[in-house]
Each structure stands twice: as structure tokens, then as C-alpha cells.
Design brief:
alpha+beta, 3-methyladenine DNA Glycosylase, Chain A, 8-stranded antiparallel sheet, 12% helix, DNA-binding
Length: 227
DNA sequence: TTGATGATTCGCT
DNA sequence: GCGAATCATCAAT
């Protein structure tokens, strides 16, 4: 009985200027914003509740740190485009290209609060727990139906876009912390999320844990033995 | 051409 | 809480 908002306009795409800023600024600015994907199967959308910034050449944790390649080419293009990559042999991750063209900075979308197309997301994810439909970057891509086919898509005027409606944060505060799943650059608090939000990934949901990043003690014998 | 790695997730104990 | 699964991409040879 959900009154699908086919008639109610979910806003318009944010202008390219929104993305043409520092990724840390953009990561914070997208929290509570509506991300929409008009997929062939129908529209799915959700509010971004967690995002991480990656700063290209200045950031050892970024795919772009070692320079431009075929895979990360989208990041070196104009801001306001999608960068989708495949990792761990099973997961796709969705990024928003930010900063000036050539800077290769991006914002990783880590978690969404489902808004529209919940049933379609459940179908794709194979779970009924709403809070987990789009929790974690791999799940975000799966719930939205994002694959490498969406790599390089224009977020301004395409099927995948971010709405200019005012952010809806549901009373949650914006918190910051170290990024997840990386071994370098942990000293930079470039992960932004809505504190206490049930859809946020991580140890205790959206609760910040001080002094200890996830995975900090998980590598007793570092395999990173490059000279 | 080959070997190694990874911005993860899930299931089992 | 911990370890396995799984494959595209990259760098070196």
C-alpha cells in the first residue's frame, strides 16, 4: 500500500558544483540526502547515512594513489560522475566523483536508509531486515542494482542521481571517525555518518568508538611487506 | 603471463 | 570474534 512517489517528484538532481568540492566536505554534505536509481526494474532510493572521503593522490588508501589506470579512470574525470569498482571478488562499491577534474577524489557511499523500492531491494538482497538492506558498501550497490555497468555514469541528469531536497537526518547528529576496512590513512577521520542510526555499518552501528579503529588488531603479521 | 592484493560480507563457534 | 570465499585489477617479469 505504499503510495509510490511516482507522481511526487523526489526533487531534482544536484548540480555539478555540489560535487566539485573537497571530498571530505561532500561526504558530510551528502548525509541525509536522497540517492535515487531509476533502474529498469523500477525506482529505488534511500537516504545516505554513511560516507567516506578518498583524496586521490594525497591519500594512500585511495585507488587513485598510484595514478590513473583503466579501472579508476572515472575518478580522474569530471566531478558528479559515478565510480563503481569490483572488489574481493564479490562486491561492487559505489563512489561519487568529487573535487576538480583530475584530482581523482571521491566519496564512497557506505550505507543507506531505504526510502523507495523497498520490496525490490529485499528481492535483490534476499533479506527482510530493512535496516540491513543497504548497510555496508557492498550491500548498497546490490540493493540499488549497481554494477560496473554504472561506472562513469553522469549523476547530473542520468538514471543515477542525488536529490537536491533538503537533507533529512531524522534528528541524528553528524559524527566522524576513521575509515573502515583500510590499513593506511587511519589517522584521518574522513568517515562521516549519522550517529546512532540503525542503518550505519560498523561495530556498534552509528556509535563512535574512540581510540580503536576496526581491524586495528586484526593483522598480527602484516602482509604488507613491500619495501 | 603470472602472482599478489583488496575501500567486504557471511556463516559458524 | 574469527576465518574463508572469490575474482577483477595491477605491477613486475
Amino acid at each position: 500500500m505504499r503510495k509510490a512517489a511516482s507522481g511526487a517528484a523526489p526533487g531534482r538532481p544536484l548540480p555539478r558544483a555540489f560535487y566539485a568540492r573537497d571530498p571530505v566536505v561532500v561526504a558530510r554534505a551528502v548525509l541525509g540526502r536522497l540517492l535515487v536509481h531509476d533502474s529498469p526494474q523500477g525506482r529505488v532510493s534511500g537516504l545516505i547515512v554513511e560516507a567516506e572521503a578518498y583524496r586521490g593522490a594525497d591519500d594512500p588508501a585511495s585507488h587513485a594513489y598510484r595514478g590513473r589506470t583503466a579501472r579508476n579512470a572515472a575518478m580522474f574525470g569530471e566531478p558528479g560522475h559515478a565510480y563503481v569498482y569490483f572488489t574481493y571478488g564479490m562486491h561492487h562499491c559505489l563512489n561519487l566523483v568529487t573535487g576538480p577534474a583530475g584530482k581523482a577524489s571521491a566519496v564512497l557511499v557506505r550505507a543507506l536508509e531505504p526510502v523507495e523500492g523497498g520490496e525490490l531491494m529485499r528481492e535483490r538482497r534476499g533479506t527482510s531486515a530493512t535496516a540491513r538492506l543497504a548497510r555496508g558498501p557492498g550491500n548498497v550497490a546490490r540493493a540499488l542494482g549497481i554494477t560496473r555497468a554504472q561506472d562513469g555514469l553522469d549523476l547530473v541528469g542520468g538514471a543515477l542521481w542525488l536529490s537536491d531536497l533538503p537533507p533529512r537526518r531524522g534528528g541524528h547528529r553528524i559524527a566522524r571517525g576513521p575509515r573502515i576496512g583500510i590499513r593506511v590513512g587511519l589517522d584521518r577521520d574522513w568517515r562521516c555518518f549519522l550517529e546512532g542510526h540503525p542503518c550505519v555499518s560498523g561495530p556498534a552501528g552509528g556509535t563512535p568508538r574512540e581510540g580503536r579503529a576496526r581491524g586495528a588488531g586484526r593483522f598480527p603479521a602484516p602482509r604488507l611487506t613491500r619495501p
